[in-house]
């Protein structure tokens, strides 16, 4: 491809609204342009990389036994109502009505659509297992689109679904997909980890996220410093044990604590440790009020609360709801003398607190001398907090450390969550009707593009892994007005194109400095510069990843390029 004939609008300055490297470089190198918040056009260079990622995905999906199809992005509301997600998915689901006032959603995901498709066509165990996938644009109305294409409202996704007659078959299909994902992200040149995760609005159990390690990741990975254990922080169980103090119980006393709302403020005001404070957080769990207690130095894990109740929705109570349920304002909430309409549960660490401090459900007041077994009606104790660095690893090996990660893939065992709700059944070997058992597997294709750039860049621009580079060679005649340079550049461009290499020829009438800056910014693996020694048949070769450069004769160039890039 000749550079004058394609569309690569590079920028010299870093755009002010681009916070992270991938966003900055994709804008500067002419890969994307924003249309509106969270919505981007993918320009020719980005499109070439996306197609390479998609090809890797297709190859590994096909190897895992899945077949490609394409489903509508526009989905009727009735399907989502069948599964129950029309009401529970949340505001991220983009909803619209047609001219006949019928409700639709723009596909955020396709469990309902694929389930309805397969249930109408597959009736016997003889046609199972079945694996299907698509690569398609998805839509989610993100509250705060950010980081370029890492968190957008329109994005490209590969979603796959498997249907099985038995749980053993599901396990086999899940393992095949898990391996396929490992292969995909390895081939994309990513440093990643597969971590135990929460299934969220998807439903189901046994799920893993594939996380690309990056400081700008929005997810926190909890991992063992000595074993292979890794989990999303929200899913890591706490196995720490706690010892109860033998100190004598004090009497319960209400004291005035003006303007002391936070744990930090109350511990400082009373000169006590955070460990002796009881943090009380009010949630609405499927419309039921639940007061969750954790130790003052811990944080409530709402995912664990959700899983404890097998709930569809868990939300922090608003100030108005707190007033309704506890007759007080946030900051002074506590578990003593609460209404029977509010269930009180507590983390295991709270059970051993002796003579603690908690809110008094009255503004500007707290209780001291709190002993829960005497003073409050706690219905159950459970693991309800986020794991912390330094805690024991849940597998019993080593201590927990944290790392940041960008989620690029997610695999789920859905079980019968959708097939039962949508009556997707088959006849087994004995002629009995059974619900299909499902798996679901997603990859953020456009997000993978950005994640690769996050891990592969330097101060001059992108450094593409060879498997994903939009072109392999950047051929640069320094002065296209010089006949020898222009002719040799075009000759080499034609030779390497005929050999099957992807070559970008910079035939623009630009200064050498501009060409070199753009070349480093775009980041192709090998640059061949045709300069002053063109008449001698000598060119300069530069390897983008290492910065190494050297001169080579035209006769030796093919062998040198083959040595650098492989066959």
From TrEMBL:
Protein's UniProt keywords contain Protein biosynthesis: yes
GO molecular function per UniProt: proline-tRNA ligase activity
Keywords annotated in UniProt: Aminoacyl-tRNA synthetase, ATP-binding, Cytoplasm, Ligase, Nucleotide-binding, Protein biosynthesis
Catalyzed reactions per annotation: tRNA(Pro) + L-proline + ATP = L-prolyl-tRNA(Pro) + AMP + diphosphate
Stored Gene3D superfamilies: Anticodon-binding domain, Bira Bifunctional Protein, Domain 2
EC supergroup of this enzyme: ligase
Domain Aminoacyl-transfer RNA synthetases class-II family profile stretches: 38-465
InterPro entries tied to this protein: aa-tRNA-synt_IIb, aa-tRNA-synth_II, aa-tRNA-synth_II/BPL/LPL, Anticodon-bd, Anticodon-bd_dom_sf, Pro-tRNA-ligase_IIa, Pro-tRNA-synth_IIa_bac-type, Pro-tRNA-Synthase_IIa_type1
Localization: Cytoplasm
Highest taxon in the source lineage: Bacteria
Pfam families xrefs: HGTP_anticodon, tRNA-synt_2b, tRNA_edit
EC annotation from Swiss-Prot or TrEMBL: 6.1.1.15
Function of the protein: Catalyzes the attachment of proline to tRNA(Pro) in a two-step reaction: proline is first activated by ATP to form Pro-AMP and then transferred to the acceptor end of tRNA(Pro). As ProRS can inadvertently accommodate and process non-cognate amino acids such as alanine and cysteine, to avoid such errors it has two additional distinct editing activities against alanine. One activity is designated as 'pretransfer' editing and involves the tRNA(Pro)-independent hydrolysis of activated Ala-AMP.
Record remark on domains: Consists of three domains: the N-terminal catalytic domain, the editing domain and the C-terminal anticodon-binding domain.
HAMAP family: Pro_tRNA_synth_type1 (MF_01569)
Stated family: Belongs to the class-II aminoacyl-tRNA synthetase family. ProS type 1 subfamily.
Complexes and interactors: Homodimer.
Protein name (Swiss-Prot/TrEMBL): Proline--tRNA ligase
Organism: Metabacillus endolithicus
Gene transcribed to yield this protein: proS
């Amino acid at each position: 491809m000749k550079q004058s004939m394609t569309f690569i609008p590079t920028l010299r300055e870093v755009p002010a609204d681009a916070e992270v490297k991938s966003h900055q470089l994709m804008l500067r190198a002419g890969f994307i342009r924003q249309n509106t918040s969270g919505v981007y056009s993918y320009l020719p260079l980005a499109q070439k990389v996306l197609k390479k990622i998609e090809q890797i995905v297709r190859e590994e999906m096909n190897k895992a036994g899945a077949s490609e199809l394409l489903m509508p992005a526009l989905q009727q509301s009735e399907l989502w109502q069948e599964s129950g997600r029309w009401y529970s998915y949340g505001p991220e689901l983009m909803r619209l009505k047609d001219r006949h006032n019928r409700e639709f959603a723009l596909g955020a995901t396709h469990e309902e659509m694929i389930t309805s498709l397969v249930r109408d066509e597959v009736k016997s165990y003889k046609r199972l297992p079945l694996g299907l996938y698509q690569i398609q644009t998805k839509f989610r109305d993100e509250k705060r689109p950010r980081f370029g294409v890492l968190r957008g409202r329109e994005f490209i996704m590969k979603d796959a679904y498997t249907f099985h007659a038995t749980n053993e078959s599901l396990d086999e299909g899940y393992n095949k997909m898990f391996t396929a994902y490992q292969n995909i992200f390895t081939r994309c040149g990513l440093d990643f980890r597969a971590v135990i995760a929460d299934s969220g609005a998807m439903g189901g159990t046994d799920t893993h996220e594939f996380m690309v390690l990056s400081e700008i990741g929005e997810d926190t990975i909890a991992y063992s410093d000595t074993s292979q254990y890794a989990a999303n922080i929200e899913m890591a169980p706490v196995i720490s044990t706690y010892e109860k103090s033998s100190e004598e119980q004090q009497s319960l006393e209400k004291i005035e604590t003006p303007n002391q709302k936070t744990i930090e403020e109350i511990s400082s005001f009373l000169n006590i440790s955070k460990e002796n404070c009881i943090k009380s957080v009010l949630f609405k769990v499927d419309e039921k009020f639940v007061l969750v207690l954790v130790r003052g130095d811990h944080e409530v894990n709402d995912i664990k609360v959700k899983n404890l109740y097998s709930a569809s929705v868990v939300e922090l109570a608003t100030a108005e709801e707190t007033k309704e349920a506890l007759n007080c304002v946030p900051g002074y909430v506590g578990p003593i003398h609460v209404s029977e309409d509010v269930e009180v549960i507590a983390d295991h660490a709270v059970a051993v607190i002796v003579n603690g401090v908690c809110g008094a459900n009255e503004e500007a007041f707290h209780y001291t001398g709190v002993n829960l077994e005497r003073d409050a009606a706690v219905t159950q104790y459970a693991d309800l907090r986020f794991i912390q660095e330094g805690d024991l690893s849940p597998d019993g090996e080593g201590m927990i450390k944290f790392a940041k990660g960008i989620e690029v893939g997610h695999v789920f065992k859905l079980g019968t969550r959708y097939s039962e709700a949508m009556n997707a059944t088959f006849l087994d070997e004995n002629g009995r009707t059974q619900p299909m058992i499902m798996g679901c597997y997603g990859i953020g294709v456009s997000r993978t593009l950005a994640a690769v750039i996050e891990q592969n860049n330097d101060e001059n621009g992108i450094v593409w892994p060879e498997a994903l580079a939009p072109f392999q060679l950047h051929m640069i005649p320094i002065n296209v007005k010089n006949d020898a340079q222009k002719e040799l550049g075009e000759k080499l461009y034609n030779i390497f194109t005929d050999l099957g290499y992807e070559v970008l020829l910079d035939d623009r009438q630009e200064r050498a400095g501009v060409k070199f800056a753009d070349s480093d910014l775009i980041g192709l693996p090998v640059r061949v510069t045709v300069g002053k020694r063109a008449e001698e048949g000598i060119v300069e070769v530069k390897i983008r990843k290492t910065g190494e450069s050297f001169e080579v004769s035209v006769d030796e160039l093919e062998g040198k390029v083959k040595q650098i890039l492989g066959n």
